[in-house]
Amino acid sequence: MSTAPAALPEVTRFLRSHPPFDTLDAAAMERVASGAEEEFFPAGTAIFSEGAGPIEHLRVVRRGAVELVHQGRVLDLLGAGELFGQASMLTGLPAGFEARAVEDTACYRLADEVARELARAPAGLRFVARSLLETGAEIGGAAEPSGDPAHQPVASLIRTPPVVCTPATTIQEAAQRMSDAGAGSVVVELVQGGLGIMTDRDLRRRVIAAGLSGSEPVSRVMSSPAYTSPPDRLGGEALLDMLDRGIRHLPIVSGTGRVLGIVEDLDLITVQTRSSFYLRRLIARAESVDELVAAAADLRPMVIALHDARVPAINVMAIYSVVVDLLTRRLLELAVAASSANEPVPSFAWLALGSQARREAGPSSDVDSAIVWFGGVPEEQIRPYLHAIGQTVADDLERCGFCSDTHGASASNLLFVRSLESWQRAARSWIEDPTQEKALILTSVLVDSRPVWGVHTGQPVADTFRIAPSSPALLRMLARFALSHRPPTGFFRGLVVEHGGKHRGRLDLKHGGVIPIADLARWAAMKAGVTSASTLERLRAGVEAGSLSPSDAHTLEDAFELIAELRLEHQVQQLRAGQEPDNYVDPRTLSPLTRTHLKEAFRAIAAIQRRLAVQVGMSPR
Q: H or E stretch including 262?
């Protein structure tokens, strides 16, 4: 390596053409440029090693290329204008990867104090945080991903109870509550429903700087409506959304509307990123279906890597679902661009259904989907267009390795392409008369629906079912529906196995374990007026509303997590062997202790089902 002073006009011109330097004012740009040195690295040179540090400088590639390598695996390849070293420099942790010149490379090395000033600016903070997420760079190579905020539900990142007040609370009183709790914000529960928020930044800018009296109501300075997140959303996904919206405080709200706490951007800013974010970057940058097919090929290896790193199966499913969401969105963008030409694109949303909607998909999952369109466009004009989009995306997803639902719950099926009014009429019809053919199945499918692309507000179809608590007949039928799948107890040392076909002698973990729990959770949540949510969040909502006892919900949660771990372990073994993953486990391959735990889990689920059967007037089996 050799070092030389950087030519001031040249470094200024170069940096100004790349983010985040393009947002700096003249004075800040002069400070950055004057503190820059140019470094030269011959091809193959290690710029710094994995575990070294903490790194003391921020570097920008001037020309050439730099590989980021973690444990022998290339995480990313950086070109001109891209930054590296910021994670270790900002956190004070050792470098989580090796930076290596792939070819003869020149970099600008920025002084520590200048780099920190850059990162503290709002635009710089957003850029650095996003780069940490998207480059696949790890800020702590020795840390386990199970402790990585990027892969944890945001609810697990809440550190203290929330500070809550009413709109009429004075600014002074709200500020005092914030100070007493050591909080950076207060959540305002609005009279008409929804939430507002006042942050410490609001106090500085809207109160102190504006000379506003502390006796004024907090409604004068709050932001409303506050952007919120469900508790099961992944930290990395939430942070990207916060950066896009320019917010620094995110209220976490349960399915029943209870404020659980606040997560701040600083709770997430030092996320340790893994291959899932690198894969997201590949998908987001893909310019063709062929490129997306190539990117999707890394999805199953990602699952194996996360499993090997001991990420909990629940989190692996959520990560997998997030990536499939992004893949679907990019396919839709390409399909719409190719089909619309110069014509205006109608307002519509693509709905994920089933396990994908609940963020519980895995390598064996198919893709359930639907389309909803908005506005008064004539059906004969818009429905064929959207059906063609649905068919194209379904075909492209199949090329990427994802089959459509075998029972026809797919946007490639004309029956699942409807206007919002049509979906809402159908939903109300099923609520009023749940004895109609397939009413319960379709209700269960649509109540899970979650928009992953397009114009939408909230959960446009699923929200129709929020009136379910006022329909005892529907709830009773849903309870009976939740009893239609029974856990496999009674055979092969207490476990029911398949008696014929290619899965003879094997245990069906999906129909015997996952579906009974998911159905019970859906019933409990709908009884509470909660619709689209994960299974675990629905169980918690059921406890809050009194439709499930805390002990029953805890039992179902433990059983769900155990079965998820067994499914993932089984499917990873199949992927390593080059087999298509399924849900059929040979009980003989399980250890005696695991078989015992599984039998106890199935028996506990069956006991809860028996209690529900008595409650709804069915004969317990």
A: strand 259-264
Phi, psi of 196 (to 5 degrees): -115, 175
**Residue 349: in which H helix or E strand, if any?**
strand 348-353
**pLDDT value at position 564?**
95
Average pLDDT over residues 198-212: 90
7 has pLDDT over 70:
no
| Torsion angles phi and psi, residue 88, rounded to 5 | -65, -40
Helices 299-308 & 313-340, crossing angle to 10 degrees?
Answer: 160
Helix or strand (DSSP H, E) at 356 = helix 354-357
Based on DSSP, count helices (H) and strands (E) in the chain, helices before strands: 23, 20
* Domains along the chain with CATH numbers: 2-139 (2.60.120.10), 149-268 (3.10.580.10), 275-470 (3.30.460.10), 473-615 (1.20.120)
Give the residue from 10, 37, 209, 171 showing the smallest Cα distance to 107. 37
Q: How many CB atoms lie within 10 A of CB 145?
A: 24
Phi–psi pair at 160, nearest 5 degrees? -140, 160
Chain centre distance of CA 476: 32
Residue 397 to residue 324: CA distance in whole angstroms: 9
The number of beta carbons lying within 10 Å of the beta carbon of residue 112 is 13
Report the alpha-carbon distance of residue 174 to residue 171 in Å, rounded: 5
Is the pLDDT at 139 greater than 50? The verdict is no
pTM, entire model: 0.69
Nearest Cα residue to 107 out of 33, 40, 11 = 40
Strand partners, 418: 372
Query: What is d(CA 466, CA 398) in angstroms, rounded to the nearest whole number?
Result: 33
Sign of CA dihedral 592, 573, 399, 305: positive
For the residues of 229-275, what is the DSSP string, one character each? Answer: B-TTSBHHHHHHHHHHHT-SEEEEE-TTS-EEEEEEHHHHTTPPP-H
Is the pLDDT score of 168 beyond 70?
yes
592: its two tokens:
């005696």
Q: How many angstroms separate the most distant Cα atoms in the chain?
A: 85
Percent of the chain with pLDDT over 70: 84
Q: Are strands 368-373 and 417-419 parallel, antiparallel or unpaired?
A: parallel
Which residue has 């015992």 as its token pair? 596
**Does the N-terminal peptide bond of residue 5 adopt cis geometry, omega within 30 degrees of 0?**
no
The pLDDT tens digits for 77-105 are: 788 888 888 767 765 667 778 899 988 89
Q: Which residue in this structure is represented by tokens 């970057």? A: 281
Closest CA relative to residue 262, chosen from 163, 119, 363, 136? 163
Look at residue 137 and tell me whether its pLDDT is greater than 70.
Answer: no
Distance CA 336, CA 250 (A): 32
8 Å CB contact between 108 and 6 = yes
Q: Give bridge partners of residue 348 from the DSSP assignment.
A: 373
234: region left, alpha or beta (phi > 0 left; psi from -120 to 50 alpha): beta
Q: Both tokens of residue 36? A: 């820059």
273 three-state secondary structure: coil
